[in-house]
Task: inverse folding
């Protein structure tokens, strides 16, 4: 083994006491090296410190580790430094799209009501919308009422109520009109005057017919007041049950505190229409003025939902002013002749000229075709004229009961007459406000 020595290793030439007896192996090469080695041998080697050579790219960005004394820096003149600050670019964070969980797969029958009508159990949780009435209560056919109208009623009877075809188309149309008449009202009574400037056109008959159609269909109370100062005949259209008149109501108004008190002064028709008669004495009739009408109207408004007023031909009478001030709608009656239609149109003109234009636009014209001369004129032209001025027009056909000028039995009227009366009542009701003041 050859050991190389240099100047840096001179201090390691002397070994410790344990190595003093070491024998130079070179001098005795023939001897057994292994037998002459000591039990322990320590060699110390001092190597030079490794110097790290930094790459040039590191030196270019290296910071000198020499502290700088700020006071040692001398400047000839103050210098300025401009620093440009670039704000960081704000990147708007896009909202993450909502994650919509997938619907549970399987059991397609659970997604409809039909799949649950037989008590089938879903393999996945059901939504609250699955608790439908037809599922919980049971699928039962809605029972129809007894059908009305010819063949359908006959089939229902001969099959012992097993086959119910429902109502006939005519009955369905009639019930639709009755539903319009049965309109619900909130608030006080609705006032409907029936008027025209021409006498003898059936104004009183139309008032009674309209009141009967309303009373027959509606569940509330209907009254018709005869406010004709020329001795009206409205009470003669029903079976009279009392001799009391509007004058008696005015006289006894302070003592009338209930509906029962008021009903003792009216006559009631089979349709439940109440009629309050006018005075039979012409002298007393002329004394019935605006103030008297207001007393009667105030009492009627306490007990009735709809108040019809049969007005006289005296359109400038004080009662007419009180009637129109309370009116929610008006019915203008016209006959089928030239002069009757012209006078009815002049009534509309008078109303417009006196500030009742809204009533005219909402008015209904009842064209009574039972008057003389109706078959000689073109009713379509009369209707076209009035349709340009009012909301609607209704023909009232000839009926022997109406032409007789006596008591009207509503149930015995011809079907066409009843249908016309119902249509008139429906049109009038359509024009009445559902809420008082609306």
Result:
């Amino acid at each position: 083994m050859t050991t190389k020595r240099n100047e840096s290793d001179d201090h390691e030439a002397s070994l410790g006491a344990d190595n003093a007896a070491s024998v130079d192996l070179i001098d005795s090469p023939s001897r057994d090296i292994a037998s002459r080695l000591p039990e322990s041998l320590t060699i110390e080697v001092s190597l030079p410190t490794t110097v790290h050579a930094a790459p040039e790219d590191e030196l270019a960005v290296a910071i000198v580790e020499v502290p700088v004394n700020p006071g040692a820096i001398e400047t000839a003149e103050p210098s300025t430094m401009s620093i440009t600050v670039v704000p960081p670019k704000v990147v708007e964070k896009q909202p993450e799209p909502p994650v919509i969980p997938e619907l549970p797969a399987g059991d397609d029958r659970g997604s409809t009501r039909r799949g649950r009508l037989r008590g089938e159990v879903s393999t996945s949780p059901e939504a609250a919308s699955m608790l439908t009435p037809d599922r919980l209560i049971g699928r039962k056919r809605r029972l129809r009422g007894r059908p009305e109208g010819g063949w359908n009623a006959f089939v229902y009877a001969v099959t012992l109520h097993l086959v119910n075809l429902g109502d006939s188309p005519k009955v369905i149309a009639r019930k639709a009109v009755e539903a319009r008449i049965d309109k619900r009202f909130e608030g006080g009574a609705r006032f409907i005057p029936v008027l025209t400037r021409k006498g003898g056109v059936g104004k009183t008959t139309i008032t009674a017919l309209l009141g009967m159609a309303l009373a027959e269909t509606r569940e509330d109370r209907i009254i018709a007041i005869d406010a004709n100062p020329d001795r009206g005949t409205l009470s003669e259209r029903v079976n009279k049950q009392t001799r009391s008149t509007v004058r008696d109501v005015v006289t006894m108004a302070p003592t009338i505190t209930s509906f029962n008190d008021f009903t003792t002064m009216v006559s009631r028709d089979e349709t439940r229409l109440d009629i309050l008669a006018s005075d039979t004495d012409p002298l007393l009739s002329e004394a019935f003025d605006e103030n008297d009408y207001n007393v009667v109207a105030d009492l009627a408004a306490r007990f009735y939902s709809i108040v019809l007023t049969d007005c006289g031909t005296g359109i400038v009478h004080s009662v007419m002013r009180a009637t129109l001030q309370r009116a929610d709608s008006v019915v203008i009656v016209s006959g089928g002749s030239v002069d009757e239609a012209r006078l009815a149109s002049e009534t509309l003109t008078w109303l417009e000229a006196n500030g009742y234009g809204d009533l005219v636009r909402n008015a209904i014209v009842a064209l009574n075709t039972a008057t003389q001369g109706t078959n000689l004129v073109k009713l379509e032209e009369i209707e076209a004229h009035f349709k340009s001025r009012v909301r609607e027009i209704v023909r009232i056909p000839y009926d022997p009961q109406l032409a007789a000028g006596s008591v009207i039995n509503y149930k015995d009227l011809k079907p066409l007459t009843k249908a016309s009366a119902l249509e008139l009542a429906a049109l009038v009701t359509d024009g009445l406000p559902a809420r008082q003041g609306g």
Remarks:
- The mean pLDDT is 79.
- Residues 184-430 form a domain with the Rossmann fold fold (CATH 3.40.50.300).
- Strands lie at 190-195, 222-226, 267-268, 273-276, 306-310, 331-335, 364-368, 392-396.
